[in-house]
From TrEMBL:
Protein name, per record: GH16 domain-containing protein
InterPro entries (UniProt xref): Beta-glucanase-like, ConA-like_dom_sf
Any GO molecular function: hydrolase activity, hydrolyzing O-glycosyl compounds
Source organism, top-level taxon: Bacteria
Organism: Chitinophaga silvisoli
Domain GH16 stretches: 422-786
Gene3D superfamilies: 2.60.120.200
GO terms, biological process: carbohydrate metabolic process
Family affiliation: Belongs to the glycosyl hydrolase 16 family.
């Protein structure tokens, strides 16, 4: 193993009075104490009087968990030599998790040749929008399909689309109108198609229901609509006083998906000014065509500024109808004899072949297809998928991808208690082994700030105790930080003095449980670092992201989360579940800064609690300071508040006796329990971040017990057996992994993102080389459903093994 000598611990009375340059050599403690046993490391080690090594050196090739003698020599101090006995850490062997998943996990199929669009996108066209998987033009030349009004996402028969009431809502493409559509070729040929679903209850009995339209203020242009009386689809072409209509064969089929394809086709060899024209209208593959004169043909001089509109008319009123729309197609040249590619579209399908029974092949349902582009397709694994090994592959109308071996784990929660005390090994019980059977290391960067995340190299055992190491702003050793994608983080911003070098500062360490835990008691007994600047945390978490195509999307909404995104968002519409509770240190004592007392009393309080502390900074001197809420039932009364201190303590001023407590179901909102917006603004809060006073300094080089008791209706937070705070809001209910460690909340400076923003350093500056958190006990006690007051939900995470490093490593 390799270690870095970062500090020398002087023996009592041996500390030099000034910095020293020393020689360093070493031998195994059981080797003879003679010159031949020593290996020289350096003769220029520069050490400060407090023992800090200014130029840390790496000592390579040492054995694991072995005592060594490090000899420091200098004729001017400690009699010429100083021997320090050092027991090397028990360095852990780890490796990233393999191709492992759970039901509800996201899985990607990748194509190196060919395209997943084959069979899913018509081969010729101006634009194509799948809508259920993407609002972008998959042909890549036009802007996103946009939504107006109160249109919502809706599923029918396993397919997803936008549910539109033509009286209030619509979808449209801003840069596609009649001139843009019909001037793509000399004969003014074009085609338009859309898939639509209409429930029997939504199909009107009279009037017309627009499906597609692009018309100017005078009604010139095109309109494709359903005649609600006859249930037939009509294609109308209007130019000045000339109008052409083509009525489709057959009627709309209610409670089913329909597709319509309309357009103009002219013989490209005929006279462009007097072409042989054909209008066509296909409904569900049934064809009807009309030959017309050129009077109603759109010429390039037509000024129709209204964009191509879906589910409503671009101009006009009095229409009636509702439906779900997907697969919008715009073509410049569609022959009525070769258009089957549109109404026979089929999406790629993912397959899971059991490795134990190759005859058993499961097709992933279409409703689990959540994203697709030419080279990658993404599914969520069905919730009912049995655990086991599978070969995963994807088929479209053209080819099959190479199978990838994966393993699907069952979603279960731990039912047994454990209490691992590293100070109490016996001949038959090794707490280090017990810990490694329950926990893994983490290697990830969650926030992507001016830090390097957490890395597994910083997790080890020293003198039998679990040690988590953090590297501060002075670190320049071998360990490199990670980026948000899990690769080595680099200094990449022009202007950064370290441009091109690996990121090494502000890198922490964390471990996470192998199992998912439900309601119960979590205990970690740990000695925190001596200096602030890093954030010790103790957290249970479960993360899932659902695109609106995903079956879990509606489940997440029904559990109080809110939809995010838009047609302009790369992810489209999605919901993000962030099922967490935890405690972090250090913290400032206030959650918000008000300008005046009047502003404080006018706020809308959503989740007030006793002990809520806020700052008032721009009122009178008598008012300015830190205030505490004493009567949560009446937060808008001045008598419910007491001035806590004249001091104004900002986020950048963390205190060693303060604790941050977070209960979360999602990521939206301010998390402070109130809003300055009017009551009429929808409550989008999904988490509550509290502050609490510990009542003492817990960064005092002593061990403290950090405990969290999780019930169905609350989480209780304890330190050294004393209840610090109870959080009753946004109590998670999904079983999750338990993790703890050292991290760096490090928002980047706006104009120099390689630096931290000093105003947002909630843990303070890390003006040191390295520090450690030592853990001597970890324990978990599950609660029964009766004690907890409820039953946990069991749901797979979207990426359950992302950033997880196993130790000891066991190949899949």
């Amino acid at each position: 193993m390799n270690i870095e000598l970062k500090k020398v611990k002087w023996a009592e009375g041996n500390a030099p009075g000034s910095p020293q340059t020393l020689s360093l050599s070493y031998r195994k403690q059981d080797a003879p104490d003679n010159a031949d046993s020593y290996t020289l490391v350096t003769d220029s080690l520069f050490v400060l009087t407090n023992g800090t090594v200014v130029n840390p050196v790496t000592i390579k090739g040492l054995d694991n968990n072995t005592p060594y003698v490090f000899r420091l020599t200098n004729a001017n101090v400690f009699g010429g030599k100083l021997d320090v006995v050092y027991n090397t850490p028990n360095e852990l062997v780890f490796a990233p998790a393999g191709n492992e998943y759970m039901p509800n996990s996201r899985i990607d199929g990748v194509k190196t040749e060919g395209s997943f669009y084959t069979g899913m996108v018509p081969p010729d066209g101006i634009a194509f929008y799948s809508v259920e998987n993407d609002f972008r033009d998959l042909l890549g030349s036009h802007s996103n399909l946009q939504v107006a009004g109160n249109a919502i996402l809706k599923k029918a028969l396993g397919y997803t689309g936008m549910y539109i009431d033509c009286q209030t809502d619509k979808m449209f493409v801003p840069d596609l109108n009649i001139p843009a559509i019909v001037t793509n070729n000399a004969s003014y040929n074009y085609g338009l198609g859309v898939y639509f679903y209409v429930a029997s209850a939504d199909l009107g009995t009279s009037g017309t229901w627009p499906l597609l339209s692009s018309m100017d203020a005078s009604g010139n242009g095109l309109l494709v609509y359903v005649d609600n009386t006859s249930k037939k689809v009509v294609f109308q072409h209007k130019y000045n006083s000339s109008t052409v209509t083509v009525t489709a064969i057959g009627t709309v089929v209610p409670d089913s998906w329909n597709n319509v394809l309309v357009g103009h086709y002219a013989n490209p060899n005929s006279n462009p000014n007097n072409p042989t024209s054909l209008y066509y209208n296909y409904l569900n593959g049934n064809t009807i065509t009309n030959t017309v004169t050129n009077a109603a043909i759109f010429f390039p001089t037509l000024s129709a500024a209204s964009p191509l509109t879906v589910g409503a008319a671009s101009v006009g009123t009095g229409y009636n109808g509702k439906g779900i729309f997907r697969n919008l197609y715009v073509a410049g040249l569609v022959s009525p004899f070769t258009d089957g590619t549109f109404y026979n579209l089929s999406a790629p399908v993912g397959y899971l072949q059991s490795t134990g029974n190759t005859a058993s092949i499961l097709a992933i349902p279409h409703e689990n297809l959540i994203a697709v582009n030419e080279n990658k397709i993404s599914f969520t694994l069905p919730q009912t998928l049995p655990a086991g090994g599978y070969n995963f592959y994807v088929m479209n109308n053209y080819e099959t991808t190479a199978p990838v071996k994966i393993y699907v784990n069952a979603v279960t929660k731990a039912g047994s208690a454990y209490d691992i005390d590293f100070t109490q090994p016996t001949e038959t019980y090794d707490p280090v082994d017990a810990f490694q059977s329950e926990y893994n290391a983490l290697g990830e960067n969650r926030d992507g700030g001016a830090d390097g995340g957490v890395v597994p190299q910083n997790v080890y055992f020293k003198d039998g105790l679990l040690t988590l190491e953090a590297h501060g702003d002075w670190y320049n050793g071998l360990v490199q930080g990670l980026d948000t994608n899990g690769t080595t983080k680099k200094h990449e911003v022009p202007g950064d003095p370290l441009l091109g070098e690996s990121w090494k500062t502000r890198v922490g360490a964390a471990v996470t449980s192998k199992k998912y835990y439900g309601y119960g008691r979590f205990i970690v007994e740990a000695k925190l670092p001596k200096l602030t600047g890093v954030s010790p945390f103790f957290r249970l978490y479960h993360h899932a992201t659902a695109r609106f195509q995903d079956p879990y999307y509606q489940t997440a909404l029904s559990n109080g989360l809110h939809g995010q995104g838009s047609t302009l968002d790369p992810e489209g519409f999605y919901v993000r579940e962030k099922n967490e509770f935890g405690m972090e240190l250090p913290a400032n004592n206030a959650v918000y800064i008000f300008n005046t007392m009047s502003e404080l009393l006018q706020a809308t309080y959503l989740y007030p609690y006793a002990g809520l502390k806020v700052i008032i900074q721009n009122d009178t001197d008598v008012v300015n300071g830190t205030w505490q809420l004493n009567t949560p039932a009446s937060p808008k009364l001045a008598t419910s508040w007491t001035k806590f201190s004249n001091d104004v303590q900002y986020l950048k001023q963390p205190r060693r006796d303060q604790l941050k407590i977070i209960n979360s179901k999602g990521e939206l909102g301010e998390g402070v329990g109130f809003t300055l917006n009017p009551v009429s603004v929808p409550n989008m809060e999904e988490f509550l971040e509290m502050r609490a006073s510990i009542g003492k300094d817990v960064w005092d080089d002593a061990y403290h017990e950090f405990r969290m008791d999780w019930y169905a209706n609350r989480v209780e937070y304890y330190i050294d057996g004393v209840l610090i705070q109870t959080n009753n809001s946004f109590v998670p209910d999904i079983a999750g992994r338990f993790s703890f460690g050292l991290s760096f909340p490090s928002a980047p400076l706006a104009n120099s993102p390689w630096l931290t923003d000093p105003e947002k350093l909630s843990a303070g500056p890390a003006a040191w080389h390295h520090q450690t958190m030592t853990v001597k006990r970890v324990a978990f006690t599950p609660f029964t459903d009766t004690v907890a007051g409820g039953t946990n939900r069991l749901i797979g995470e979207t990426e359950p093994f992302e950033g997880l490093y196993r130790f000891p490593y066991v190949p899949m």
